[in-house]
């Protein structure tokens, strides 16, 4: 079954069980102009990012960070990604301005195998620089570099969850002592209230590495029953 059909089947199943919201999934890569995205200054997407004929968004050069035109609070995001060798990237969410910087919580995307001595908090699927993995029994399952991995992010009622290839990696609650301890021990310690804002942009980052995204679907969960 294709990723798109799997996603639609999942949404239908949840809806039939009364769990999913009435809000349907939106394809954030729906047109070649990438009209759902802009740069922080509001300018159109630059040439470094290119939507290929098969619907894959490819960052081949310097294209800068992209943010969604719309803001998202509670949401569910599904996506597929492929990262280049020694590559570094990530998807940020609830992105807002802290001084002169646009910052947000980040689902880390990285070629972990190329950096065996890398800090655990920088590994794929984790909360970048905050929490590596939420439970010792959780484990990452990687696919080969030339293969697309499947990511999922669910943010709802202060709860944040990350999946990598169907495996739960992160399950945390914003605003708990554990959360604030993680922030205070991170590079965001000098950003008061980091991550506690209730809504913000989604961001595709440019860390000067080649990366591919496809099947990037989001739906809003604000005010909806909990999603499993």
Structure description:
10% of the residues lie in helices and 34% in strands. The chain has 228 residues and is mainly beta. The protein has one domain (23-220): Exo-inulinase, domain 1 (Jelly Rolls), CATH 2.60.120. The strands form 2 sheets. Strands 1, 3, 4, 6, 9, 10, 11 and 13 form an 8-stranded antiparallel β-sheet that branches. It is globular. The two termini are 21 Å apart. The relative contact order is 0.25. Residues 9-22 have low confidence and may be disordered.
Give descriptors for this structure.
228 residues, mainly beta, Jelly Rolls, eight-stranded antiparallel sheet, five-stranded antiparallel sheet, 10% helix
Give start-end ranges of low-pLDDT stretches.
9-22
Protein structure class: mainly beta
The largest sheet, given as strand count, sense and whether it forms a barrel, is: 8 strands, antiparallel
How many separate domains make up the residues?
1
CATH superfamily: Exo-inulinase, domain 1
Question: Which fold does the CATH topology refer to?
Answer: Jelly Rolls
Q: Which percent range describes the beta-strand content?
A: 25-35%
Helical run tally = 2
H-E string: HEEEEEEEEEEEHEE
What is the molecular shape? globular
Mean pLDDT: 91
């Amino acid at each position: 079954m294709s990723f798109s059909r799997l996603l639609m089947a999942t949404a239908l199943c949840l809806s039939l069980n009364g769990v999913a919201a009435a809000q349907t999934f939106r394809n954030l890569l729906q047109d070649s102009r990438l009209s759902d995205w802009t740069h922080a200054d509001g300018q159109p997407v630059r040439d470094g990012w290119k939507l290929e004929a098969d619907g894959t968004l490819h960052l081949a050069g310097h294209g800068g960070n992209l943010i969604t035109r719309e803001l998202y609070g509670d949401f569910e995001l599904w996506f597929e990604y492929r990262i280049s060798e020694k590559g570094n990237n990530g998807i940020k969410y609830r992105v807002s301005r802290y001084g002169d910087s646009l910052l947000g919580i980040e689902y880390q995307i990285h070629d972990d195998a190329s950096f065996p001595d890398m800090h655990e908090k920088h590994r794929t699927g984790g909360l970048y620089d905050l929490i590596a993995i939420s439970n010792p029994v959780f484990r990452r399952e990687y696919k080969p570099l030339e293969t697309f991995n499947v990511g999922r992010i669910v943010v709802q009622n202060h709860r944040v969850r990350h999946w990598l290839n169907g495996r739960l990696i992160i399950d945390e609650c914003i605003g708990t002592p554990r959360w604030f301890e993680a922030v205070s021990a991170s590079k965001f310690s000098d950003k008061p209230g980091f991550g506690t804002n209730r809504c913000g942009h989604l961001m595709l980052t440019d860390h000067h590495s080649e990366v591919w995204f496809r099947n990037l679907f989001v739906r809003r969960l604000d005010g909806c029953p909990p999603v499993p």
